[in-house]
Amino acid sequence: MTTAPAAIQSEPGLSGQTVIVIGGSSGIGLETARRARAEGAGLVLAGRNPGHLERAATELGAVGTGALSTAAFDAADPAALERFFQDLPGPIDHVMVTAGGQYYARLADLDFTKARRALDEHLWLTLHVARDAAGKVRPGGTLVFMTGTGARRPAVGVMIAAIESAALPAITANLALELAPVRVNLIAAGFVDTPLSASLLGDDLDKRRDELRATLPIGRVVGPADVAALAVHLMTNTALTGATYDVDGGEQLV
């Protein structure tokens, strides 16, 4: 007697669903919003700069047919973040958080104010979003957070980024249990060719791109679209929760 294999849940699109992207006015956040909207999702873009949000909304206006709105506030301000979620008109399906920049400095040069801000924008922001969004996200919906790979290879000047990338996988796994059936996942990105990377590297940007093209197994530089594709997959594949997913082009292997 044979037993039929268990049915595999198909991956639904995002049609009729609402996706919130905090940090959605540029880079990875904007690309994720573009991809989600093309999949049929309604969008709420959130960020600090009203002008950047307006430009992003104009750019996305011709993509998809779902509702599109923006909200300008500082996500690192717990009171503002709480008001944002309280003011949402109805239930939502997915939240993607890309807000918060990295801070790099040697110990001797460490600016503790900037370091605390960076930790707030990653560690505490994650917990605030999880608590504030929990009652708004439909069962089976997703919280998707982002970190880097700084904890994988110790190096001078990356201590704060390493703390963030070491702590967030544990936070993600615990949140997945506490918030179930809402799903919680984490993307750990290596170098991604974004405006933020350009601002951090300055004149060294082209050199870094050339190094990665020559050494990465994929033979090219990871871009925002690569991360966005993974983010939307995490939203639509309902079997995934509590895990960290690397997108670094194989950088850790070399």
How would you describe this protein?
Helix 5 (159-179) links the parallel strand 5 (137-148) and strand 6 (183-189). This protein has one domain: Rossmann fold. It has helices at residues 27-38, 50-60, 78-87, 112-133, 159-179, 195-201, 205-215, 224-236, and strands spanning 18-22, 42-47, 68-72, 92-97, 137-148, 183-189, 244-247. It is globular. The model has no long low-confidence stretch (mean pLDDT 89). The N and C termini lie far apart (49 Å). 38% of the residues are buried. By secondary structure, it is an alpha/beta fold.
- By CATH, the superfamily comes out as NAD(P)-binding Rossmann-like Domain
- Structure summary, number of beta strands: 7
CATH class: Alpha Beta
CATH fold group: Rossmann fold
Low-confidence stretches: none
Throw out a few tags for this protein.
single chain, 254 residues, alpha/beta, Rossmann fold, seven-stranded parallel beta sheet, 8 helices, 7 strands, globular
Topology of this structure?
Layout: E1 18-22, H1 27-38, E2 42-47, H2 50-60, E3 68-72, H3 78-87, E4 92-97, H4 112-133, E5 137-148, H5 159-179, E6 183-189, H6 195-201, H7 205-215, H8 224-236, E7 244-247
Parallel strand pairs: 1-2, 1-4, 2-3, 4-5, 5-6, 6-7
Give a quick summary of the entry:
It contains eight helices and seven strands.
